[in-house]
Automatic annotation (TrEMBL):
CsbD-like domain segment(s): 6-54
Superkingdom of origin organism: Bacteria
Biased composition (Basic and acidic residues): 1-20, 33-42, 51-60
Region (Disordered): 1-60
Family of the protein in this entry: Belongs to the UPF0337 (CsbD) family.
Entry protein name: CsbD family protein
SUPFAM superfamilies noted in UniProt: Hypothetical protein YjbJ
UniProt source species: Salicibibacter cibi
InterPro entries reported for this sequence: CsbD (IPR008462), YjbJ_sf (IPR036629)
Length: 60
């Protein structure tokens, strides 16, 4: 996984967690949903990066 892919994943997860927690504190379900979506986006970015790593390792 490249550094930029890892950073995108980490940023998406952090942004999502922040939105989720603020939404929870403010009883804002829309913000919570956006936060959960961002966290899932980060997980997906991470999975894609790891799959690319495995693919590159298998080519060697």
């Amino acid at each position: 996984m490249s550094i930029s892919e890892k950073m995108k994943s980490v940023v998406s997860k952090a942004k999502g967690e922040t939105k989720d927690q603020i939404g929870n504190a403010m009883d804002n379900t829309k913000m919570q949903a956006e936060g959960k979506k961002d966290k899932m986006k980060g997980d997906a970015q991470n999975a894609v990066g790891e799959a690319r790593n495995k693919d590159k390792q298998n080519e060697k």
